[in-house]
Amino acid sequence: MKKNFWLINGLALLLVSGCSNHFFPPKPEAVLESLHLNSLPAKIFYIIGEDLDHEGLEVIGIYSDNREKIEPIDQKNLIGYDSEKPGPQLITVLVEDQTVVFMVTVCELQYIELITPPEKIDYAIGDTIDTTGLVVTGYYSYEENLPLSRNELISPDNLSGYAMGTPGKQTVTVTVKDKTVTFVIKIYPLDYIAVTDPGREHYLRGEVLELSAMEVTGYYANRDGEDPAEPIIRIETLEPYMISNYDPETLGSQTVTVTIEEKTDNFDVMVWEFIDLQITAPPLKTIYAKGEELDIKGLAVTGSYNNGTVTKTYPEPITMDNISGYDAYSQVTQVITVTVRDRQTSFEVSMGGQMNISINLDDSPGGLEENIILSKTGTLHPKETTLSLSKEYAEYAWFINDSDSSASAEKTFVLKAEGLPFDNNRLRVEVKTDTGIFYGRELIFTIKE
């Protein structure tokens, strides 16, 4: 009995296994058989030119296995919309090879309405019209549909019928597509001008007037009619043809006239000739070490000017752009040139007189600089000097004043003014030769402020 049980079970398993492979093929994959429109888009009425908006649209896909699912929809699934064609339009939703449709309506412009005129309605003649604050609403519909509305984007290109160069009331037409609405502006003529800032009042002979530095204000009103609600004031743009009675070659005071649209105002300028340039104070520093940059601190330069009647002097602002002739690596006295316009003056500086001293211990005393001058401020004299021996020795020692302690045991010694008294300073150098002979020399140096 037990043997039969196992035999029957084995045959059953074999039969089931054989059937699954040969008699029961895999279940076919479900396919989309139809679409169902579950909800329309939130927006089905459009203003002409608007893009299609499918937000809210829900499409159900029905499959061959009776399953249903919400299909993902984007613009590429929607066919048949033309934003520039007024009227009803049938929109097709395409998913795979199945479709469903819904209807939208594109509304065309019926009329426009002026809601708010521009903030600015009073203008000076020649101004540019300003649409700031202008609100125009367009109303759109198709047949009996309720109208849609929107605020239209208005630029000067939508405006016509006005001439900013003509004084008086002007009717401005706003056009959107072929619909129009109007508003009124007022253009006022120039009443008078005033030179509110002459800019420069002094010029050199030959200079043209600096119009960009001037300010001329125009005042606009209509003396024979209605004045603007607020004063119309404009800073005028000046052109050379508006200027008269100025001669850049004539010295002295001149009354210059500004003319704009037959309105005039005057201002005075003085024309000078630059006749001389002088140094009234040299720079604080006039002695330099090799390689030092020129320092013009303390330099004062005065220019002399004549207007045909009087001569006046004025301090000139001097920068390194006015300076030429300095060579930081020259070892001679240099003449430094100061240039202002077409005039020049000069001062002198000394270069490297004591800054690098070579000492030959075999020279006679007269062959050596014996009066070294240093300065604690480094202005009229250098703060330090470098002394070096012209020959090689076995040992070196440098002593300052009465000190028994060597300040340096090198061939080269830098003597500095800092910390030393002002007068009767002595510097002693001693050397030892390779043969054991000692000798040296003493130099006198002075420290100044």
Note down, in words, how this protein is organized.
The chain has 449 residues and is mainly β. Among the domains are: 75 residues, Immunoglobulin-like; 66 residues, Immunoglobulin-like (Sandwich), CATH 2.60.40; 79 residues, Immunoglobulin-like (Sandwich); 93 residues, Sandwich (Immunoglobulin-like). It is 5% helix and 48% strand. The protein contains one helix and 33 strands. The radius of gyration is 50 Å and the shape is flat. The termini are far apart.
List the helices and strands and how they pair.
Elements: H1 2-22, E1 32-39, E2 45-47, E3 58-63, E4 68-70, E5 78-79, E6 87-95, E7 98-116, E8 122-124, E9 135-141, E10 148-151, E11 159-160, E12 168-176, E13 179-188, E14 190-197, E15 202-204, E16 215-220, E17 232-235, E18 243-244, E19 252-260, E20 263-281, E21 287-288, E22 300-306, E23 311-316, E24 323-324, E25 334-340, E26 343-351, E27 356-359, E28 371-375, E29 384-389, E30 395-400, E31 412-416, E32 425-432, E33 438-448
Parallel strand pairs: 2-7, 8-13, 15-20, 21-26, 27-29, 28-33
Antiparallel strand pairs: 1-3, 3-4, 5-6, 6-7, 7-9, 9-10, 11-12, 12-13, 14-16, 16-17, 18-19, 19-20, 20-22, 22-23, 24-25, 25-26, 29-31, 30-32, 32-33
